Amino acid sequence: MLKLKNQKGFTLIEFxxxxxxxxxxxxxxxxxxSFDRLHLSNAEEKLIADIDYAKKRAMTTGxxxxxxxxxSQNSYSVFESSLGNTLPSPYQSNQSMFIDYDTDERFQxxxxxxxxxxxxxxxxxxxxxxxxxxxxxxxxxxxxxxLQGAGTTIVLNINELGGVQSS
Length: 167
Hints:
The chain is α+β, with helices and mostly antiparallel strands. The protein has helices at about 10-30, 35-60; strands at about 65-70, 75-80, 85, 100, 110-115, 120-125, 130, 145-150, 150-160, 165.
């Protein structure tokens, strides 16, 4: 019988044991990963992008644009004031710029808690990109929008020049 001396390597049992341990460690890591935080981050980024889109559309068209928030329905929409309806999405054909946090899987578990503008649940931007009231009068107080998810609250502050910061 041929005996191999000083053979180096792993046995099949050792290999299976290592792979099993790696699988168990991977599962425990993934169970700690919270998709709720990812959904909240997605909602924050999308809302900031949509507010910026409304501002830029107002500046390029010279027509007041805005975002209408509906906290009781957990949704918002981007609109052009002269049309009075929700804009079509520039990102996806046959879609509107209406976001419903309850039905959109990207934002599962996210809530639109409240909106403070001082003049209702909408923000408006004029042709200079400034935050205005519904009559087009520049609004110097700014506005806030509060999102919540995964036990975390994010407040978006919109200043009078239309800039958005989250805290």
